[in-house]
């Protein structure tokens, strides 16, 4: 490769070594990212020092990490201040993590659209029945989103084991959603497990006897992506019969924790009836 005078690299050679196109090198010069060491006043040819390759390689890495050209210029000018650079990298990582979560949620929503368009899910008719009296152990918290319900289950199970809570054969478990309306964030959820008898729990675990309740319910078999069809049927039933209800809750007959296959999940979607 040809080298310029005074031990400098021609822009074409520098482009090859840095993996930055000549067009982009000129763009970087315009935005203060990487200026040539010398510009020939007669020919306009640009030349770079070999030690500028380290800066060029860092610029490429920052570009690949999604930093805009203005931010790249600031960071390259701040390499003598590692704390400032680290803060910028941490902020970018947090931003990318948020975007990854958003993209994952959009992919899930896309699958739900496909599932909805496939037709009616496997579900029972809406019925009114009596849920028998039972004793439950529960944990209630406000979590960031509905999808964070799983963190409550991860917390409650060790608490139940330490408490030595007795479980009846065929007992049920579920989650109650206490907010009076759907929330985009800060969701009030209580997860609960049926136990055989009352016991003295340590906080934050709560044990109480639930009275028998009349409920409106329908059962979904399969992925939660099909849940809108179930809630739609429940809504039509409640409107038709002019029923007032309390907080919605789910009973997990077959849960993801028990069987990973979504096609095998069985969920009772329930609303307690408020007596007139």
Automatic annotation (TrEMBL):
Q: What is the lineage of its organism?
A: Bacteria, Bacillati, Actinomycetota, Actinomycetes, Kitasatosporales
Its recorded name reads MerR family transcriptional regulator
- Which domain of life, per UniProt? Bacteria
Q: Which GO molecular function annotation, any one, does this entry have?
A: DNA binding
SMART domains per UniProt: AraC_E_bind, HTH_MERR
Keyword Cell cycle assigned: no
**Which keywords are on file for this protein?**
DNA-binding
What InterPro entries does the record point to? AraC_E-bd, DNA-bd_dom_put_sf, GyrI-like, MerR-type_HTH_dom, MerR_fam, Reg_factor_effector_dom_sf
Q: Which residues form the HTH merR-type domain?
A: 8-78
């Amino acid at each position: 490769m040809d080298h310029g005078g005074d031990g400098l690299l021609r822009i074409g050679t520098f482009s090859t070594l840095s993996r930055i196109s000549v067009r982009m090198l000129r763009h970087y010069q315009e935005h203060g990212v990487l200026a040539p060491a010398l510009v020939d006043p007669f020919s306009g040819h640009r030349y770079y020092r070999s030690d500028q390759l380290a800066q060029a390689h860092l610029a490429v890495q920052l570009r690949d990490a999604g930093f805009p050209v203005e931010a790249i210029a600031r960071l390259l000018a701040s390499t003598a201040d590692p704390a400032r650079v680290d803060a910028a990298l941490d902020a970018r990582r947090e931003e990318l993590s948020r975007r990854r979560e958003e993209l994952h949620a959009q992919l899930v929503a896309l699958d739900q659209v496909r599932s909805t368009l496939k037709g009616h899910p496997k579900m029972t008719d809406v019925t009114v029945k009596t849920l028998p009296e039972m004793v439950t152990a529960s944990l209630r918290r406000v979590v960031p989103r509905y999808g964070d319900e799983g963190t409550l289950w991860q917390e409650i199970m060790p608490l139940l084991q330490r408490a030595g809570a007795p479980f009846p054969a065929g007992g049920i478990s579920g989650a109650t959603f206490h907010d009076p309306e759907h929330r985009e964030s800060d969701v009030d959820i209580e997860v609960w497990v049926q136990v055989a008898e009352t016991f003295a729990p340590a906080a934050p675990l709560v044990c109480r006897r639930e009275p028998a309740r009349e409920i409106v319910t329908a059962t979904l078999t399969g992925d939660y992506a099909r849940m809108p069809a179930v809630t739609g049927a429940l809504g039509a039933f409640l409107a038709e019969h002019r029923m007032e209800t309390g907080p919605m809750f789910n009973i997990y007959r077959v849960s993801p924790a028990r069987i990973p296959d979504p096609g095998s999940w069985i969920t009772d979607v329930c609303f307690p009836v408020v007596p007139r």
